[in-house]
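Box 3.1 A note on notation
Throughout this textbook, protein chains are presented in two layers. The first layer is the amino acid sequence; the second is a token string describing backbone geometry. Keep the layers aligned when reading.
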Amino acid sequence: MPAHPEAIEFLATRRSRPPKLMRPPAPSRDEILALLTLATRVPDHGKLEPWRFVVLSGAGLARFSAAIRARAAETGQDADKGAGAFEQAPMTVAVVAVPRDAPKIPEIERMLSAGAVCLELLNAALASGWAACWLTGWPAYDAPFREAALGLAPGEWIAGFVHIGTSDAAPPERPRPDVPGLVTWMDG
């Protein structure tokens, strides 16, 4: 397999863009479908497709943000922390983890596949020139809320919200891990 130095450079320098740095436009329907197609090119033991997508934009995104604020008022959650990213980014993709009956496929592999879809969508959006960020937050973990606001079935959950838009601003740098300190070598 040939090397792809451009891809290595992208991975070495990629940085998420916080929703507060985003503005319209967002990807068109055709563009987001192309990104979602790329996002599904992840490990998927048993070809179960243990994930699906809810794309929020325009009035749908505004309704979702309002629903977060209403739920926050009911439950005492932080409304700004819950709704802020959805009010700043012009598009959000909810990556929904979908349980599938597959006794031979460990549940953890299905969960990790849903997480891999989030990262693949994030990287596909960034590589395509969009600003993007993968977040969760309390709306992802409130089962009654996500079922009512996003139509999730019982047992489905949010692997991540991937916010996508446009940004010319450089994201803030952050400390990176000390990789040698995280490695245990077992080669002798």
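The chain has eight helices and four strands. The chain has a mean pLDDT of 96.
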